[in-house]
Design a protein that fits this description.
alpha/beta; Rossmann fold; five-stranded parallel beta sheet; 5 strands; 36% helix; DHquinase_II
Length: 142
């Protein structure tokens, strides 16, 4: 059974409270629960991680490599636009990954439209809300 890591970056622990007009009313726990239900149907195993700390996300990506994870779905949140370290961890481990964003980062402030990960990701899903995570998970059902 393939194992996929779901990695969420800073402030995503505040989903459901933080700017619901932008990010929706679902909590991160709600999203993880719906992903777990879908993963069961797709015969995939999931592990979840959320951190507000860049170094913890980098260390987790390294651990995914050690554990031979099949793929990563990552919402790097604000680190999308700033983190060379997360980019380098993903490139260094060569774990295939899909970048997901709840909001359309290209329709927001200009600084949000630049991603340090999109050009090395399998794909990017942006602006589809929590369904974007499900779309990404279905990629591994091939």
């Amino acid at each position: 059974m393939r194992e996929i890591a779901i990695i969420n970056g800073p402030n995503l622990n505040l989903l459901g409270v933080r700017e619901p007009e932008v990010y929706g009313a679902e909590t991160l726990q709600d999203i993880n629960q719906s992903l777990s239900e879908l993963a069961e149907k797709l015969n995939l195993s999931l592990r979840f991680m959320q951190s507000n700390a860049e170094h913890e996300m980098v260390n987790y990506i390294h651990q995914c490599f050690e554990d031979q994870i099949s793929g990563i779905i990552i919402n790097p949140a604000a680190f999308t636009h700033t983190s060379v370290a997360i980019r380098d961890a993903l490139l260094g481990t060569q774990i295939p990954f899909i970048e997901v964003h709840l909001s359309n980062i290209h329709a927001r402030e200009p600084f949000r439209s630049e991603s340090w990960l999109s050009d090395v990701a399998i794909g990017t899903i942006t602006g589809m809300g929590s369904i974007g995570y499900q779309m990404a998970l279905r990629y591994w059902d091939q």
